[in-house]
Structures are given as structure tokens and as C-alpha cells.
Specification:
about 35% helix; magnesium (chains A, B); ATP binding (chains A, B); EC 2.7.4.16 (chains A, B); Phosphoribosyl-aminoimidazole Synthetase, Chain A, domain 2; 6-stranded mixed sheet; homodimer; nucleotide-binding (chains A, B); alpha+beta; 60s Ribosomal Protein L30, Chain: A; globular; 4-stranded mixed sheet
Chain lengths: ~325, ~325
């Protein structure tokens, strides 16, 4: 965080009420302001879907690199991707926030603005939350979604032998952005890599992609949060199947190769183990859903659950929480 | 936290999967285990109600005093009270957890067991969450409730002049328990004050009390979380009214007086400013709801929003987040 200008008060100075007022002003909702938020009447036959994700400064994001708006936007994408991955539509978010007393109120206003902008892309909104002092800046976001109709949600356990593995969105871009930021610092990352930096600091997932997949025959779905191999391995284990990826279908984009050459690393580490892209990985028995591409096949379970072109992947680690 | 026995692994040793397995074993739910949890089909005309509350060790709870089970139970009561205070029925909870690597897995198992026991009292369950390493033990709980029928929720802005102020549950008991723990330490608090200690470490709210209040004509409701005067002042401000409390109706119980005498403090500080009881305060235009007692009247707004017997209260501070 840059030092705040003289006129910018800290959360310790304005207190709980001041913090809440700043957040609500930047992310307004008619549903906010009470002990709890009442959501819209759900559509007939719809069910509520809920997910939560805690982001800690220094572990899940860095205010050295990311703007306040990006931190807010990333927290929403990470949570809404879990709702989309069920085939549901995100409709609301809650924010529980811990912030040191020295945090500038303008920073939290920026976080709320980023949340408002990203939830707005989904026609969703921030409906409530909690604020407290604490040693570390922490955002604990809960996403609430609506699952329409009677079809089951796209859980991790319904992939079957013979189905296609499909993907929506870029894979490995967030990890490439992280590597560039780590090497150069935000100000000095060459401009041509801006999309990789954004993929790390404020990843996007096209709203409605998960609903489309569910409507067109997808069976299982997850988001690429812990790394391609790790996330597909979790899905494969839960479904009792294997997954074979076609290397040509996930080959690193030219931009990734260029960044990797500059940093003298193998771009396949980013593609296979990167995570945090929050793009969608699914299996389907039907046509490839609109916006997705085929990247592999569901196979019979084997000792090596996830293979690339039939071989053990070159890299297979992923995000570690502890 | 007591040092773990030799055979008790830490979260750093068992990793994310081990932590999740321990939590799910202690708080099982068929809805858990995916990217997000799908809740039951809501009843016709029902709406989802959501609330979140973050509890940080050293600020909101102390593992020096509280057992793991109590920490889990308190986190649920704090959140479910916000759902009850809307007149809704709690049906599910999510837990986002940050824990240092040195945390014994058995402690988290205890937290989950406390959550399972308390949610079970409401026929609710822990349906999902997130775990991450972090410097501090933090529980960020989200509660999801169901609001039946077409009547409005009991928001803070519907108290009107001439209505009764009613309360369910003890007031000031949590603060008294805190003072005793602070003075004696858990082991040495005299046994006769056990109910006060429990009121602080694992407060309870009778399930369904909020639903009853809504069904019998309550207009506004909140829970006693920040202190009696502060919580009623918030309600009064939001409704544009005043509140006059009858001192005889909130006079400290004999047990509170006994504890106060022992510690040489005025028990009215606990009653008027204590908070954290998570009992219910409501206004009603009808009969006193079952389980509630009348403690005052809604008055016309005045410069002093909350009065006791028509006078400014002797103590009027409350919980401060920053």
C-alpha cells in the first residue's frame, strides 16, 4: 500500500461505522444495512448454492502489486467461479473483512468499488458483511448463487469414461503474471505482458459460462484454482476415472512462451501447475459447450490419474494451503 | 491452547486435505465436498437470508479460556442469532478458516464438533468452507437461513412509537462471564458462576425464537451483540424513534449481583453495555411473543435516543471493532 495522503483517514480514525459507510457507498445495495440480508424470491424450482473463500494479504494477494480495486475484483472472481463451476448463477456476495487500524479508508473504498464492478458484471451485488480490526488484511467472501431447474448441479463426481474434457478461458496466465510481477515488480513488467499481469491481479471469468455448460450436457465441472493437473486429479478421483489431456490443446500461447523465455523458465510449469486462473474445466457427454474447447478425454481409472498424451505430466504439483 | 500430545499432528503436518477430512468427519454433511454446496429446495414463497461474522483469536475469543468446542459453538450462535433476528430459520453454515501451521488438528476437530453440535440444535448443518494457513486462528462463518411466507423480515427500521420493546434471554451474562474469566482464569472461577462462564464462552439462543416473534406481530428485531444500549440505539436510529427501558425489567439477576460484588464492579455496566449475549431484542405491536418479556416502550425520537426510566443511561458504550 502506498502511504495515504494527509487527508485520507485510516480505519482506526473513522471506526466501524465510517468503514461500513465507505464500503456501502462504494458498493451500494438496497439489501444491505441490517443484521442479515434477505435475497430475492428465487425462481420456481431453483435452489441456493453457496461457497466461501478466504484471501489473506501476503498469501493470496499482494497490495504491493495489486490495486485495491483488483483485490476486490479477484476475491469476487475466485468465489463466483465456484458458483459457476456448479452450473449456477451468482446472485449475491457477502464480505467479512479484517483490516489493521492503519489501513487507509480509501483502500477499503477501492476494494468495495472492485467488488461492486465485478459483481455488477454478473447482475449480482454485495448484500452484507462484517468488519473488524485485525493484524492482517483479510477478505473472507461468501458467494450465493441460484441453480435453476431440476437437473443436478455439476459436482465433481459425475465424470464418466468416454466423455470429453473441455475448458473455457486461459490456462497458466495467472502464474505467468505472478512470475513477471515477482521478477520485475508491477511498474517494470514490459507493457506487452499486461494481459498476463491482469490475469493474476484481477482474473475474469465470463459470466454465465457455467450455466451454458450445464444446459448443454456437461457432467462435472471445476474451476482452475489450484493448478490444471491438481484440479483435474481431484475431479478424476471423485469420479473414479482417469483423465488424459491432449498437449496440443493446452500448448502455451505465444505470449506465455515469450514471457517464459524472458524469465528462462519452462512455460509448461505455468500451464500444468499454475492455478488461480479461475477458468472452467468440465467433462461432457454432449457437444462442446459454447465458449469451451476440447482439451482431452475421460479415461478408465489408472495408477496415474491424470496423463498428458498418455504419459505422466512433466509437472504435477499445485497450490498448497499449509 | 494446551500443547498437543505427541501423537496429535499439526495442520502443517497433515496439510489441507487432512484438515478438511478432520473437519468433515467431525461435522458431516452430505452437501459438503464440492466447489460449492447446493441447499435444499426452499419451501414455496420462502426467501434466503444470509449473514456473516468473522471471529479472530485474541479479539473475539480466547483459546486460553475456551475449549475448541466452545469456539465452534460460539461462532455459530453469533451468526445464527443474526438470522433469527430477521425472523428467519437458520438452515446451513459455511466455515472459512485460517489457522497457523502449529495448530493441532485435534483443536480444529473440536471446533468442527462444536459447530456440528450447535447447528444440529437448529436442524442445520455445516455445508462447506475453505481452509488456509495464516498467522492467526480466524473463523469466518456465514449463516444461511430461510424466511417463510410473504411477511417482511424483521429489519431494524420498523419500530414505531407506542410499540412494546421485548427481550428474550439473559442480558449482561456474557460480560459478567468475561470479567470473571479475566479475573480468575477459567480453572479458578468459582463453580457457582458456571452459567456466566458458559454465557461468555458458548452462548446459546433457543432455536426458533425469532420465527415465533415474527409470527406474533414483532416489527423490528436485533440481537444483543454490541451491548443493550448500543444495539437498541442502532434500532432506534434506523427506525427514527426513541426507546425507553424500564430498569426493573432489566435489573441484574442475583447471580450477576453476586459476581459484581466479588469483583467490586457495578453490574449495570454488564447489563447496559455488555453485548455478546446474542439474545434477542424486538419491538412489537401485538402480544408479547412467547419466550419474550416486555422491557420498555418505543417513544418519539428525542436527542437522547435510548433512555432508562426516562433518563440518560448510566453507561452507554459498547463493543468497538477498531
Amino acid at each position: 500500500m502506498n502511504p495515504p495522503p494527509e487527508t485520507d483517514p485510516t480505519v482506526g480514525e473513522v471506526g466501524e461505522r465510517g468503514v461500513i459507510e465507505a464500503i456501502v457507498a462504494a458498493a451500494p445495495s438496497t439489501r444491505n444495512g441490517d443484521d442479515a440480508a434477505v435475497l430475492l424470491n428465487a425462481a420456481p424450482n431453483s435452489r441456493a448454492v453457496v461457497a466461501t473463500d478466504m484471501l489473506i494479504e501476503g498469501r493470496h494477494f499482494s497490495t504491493t502489486w495489486s490495486t485495491a480495486e483488483e483485490v476486490g475484483a479477484k476475491a469476487i472472481t475466485a468465489n463466483f467461479a465456484d458458483i459457476e463451476a456448479m452450473g449456477a448463477r451468482p446472485i449475491a456476495a457477502l464480505l467479512a473483512l479484517s483490516a489493521p487500524e492503519s489501513t487507509p479508508v480509501s483502500f477499503l473504498r477501492g476494494v468495495a468499488a472492485g467488488i461492486a464492478a465485478r459483481t455488477g458484471e454478473y447482475s449480482a451485488e454485495l448484500v452484507g458483511g462484517d468488519v473488524t480490526g485485525g493484524d492482517t488484511l483479510i477478505l473472507s467472501v461468501t458467494a450465493i448463487g441460484s441453480l435453476g431447474g431440476n437437473r443436478p448441479a455439476l459436482t465433481l463426481d459425475a465424470a464418466r469414461h468416454g466423455q470429453q474434457v473441455v475448458a473455457h478461458g486461459n490456462i497458466g496466465w495467472s502464474a505467468a503474471g505472478f512470475a513477471l510481477l515477482n521478477h520485475f515488480g508491477r511498474a517494470d513488467v514490459p507493457e506487452r505482458f499486461a494481459d498476463l499481469v491482469t490475469a493474476h491481479c484481477a482474473p475474469t471469468l465470463t459470466p454465465g459460462r457455467g450455466v451454458v455448460a450445464r444446459a448443454t450436457g456437461a457432467t462435472s465441472m471445476t474451476d482452475n484454482s489450484d493448478g490444471l493437473v491438481v484440479d483435474l486429479r481431484t475431479l478424476a478421483h471423485r469420479s473414479g476415472v482417469g483423465v488424459d489431456i491432449d498437449s496440443a490443446a493446452i500448448a502455451p500461447a505465444a505470449l506465455l512462451c515469450e514471457a517464459a523465455e524472458l524469465l528462462s523458465v519452462d512455460p509448461w510449469t505455468w500451464v500444468l501447475t499454475g492455478g488461480e486462473d479461475h477458468t472452467l474445466l468440465a467433462t461432457t457427454a454432449g457437444d462442446t459447450p459454447s465458449g469451451f474447447r476440447t482439451i482431452g478425454q475421460v479415461t478408465r481409472s489408472d495408477t496415474v490419474t491424470v496423463t498428458v498424451d498418455g504419459e505422466a505430466p512433466a509437472y504435477d504439483t499445485g497450490w498448497v494451503s499449509f
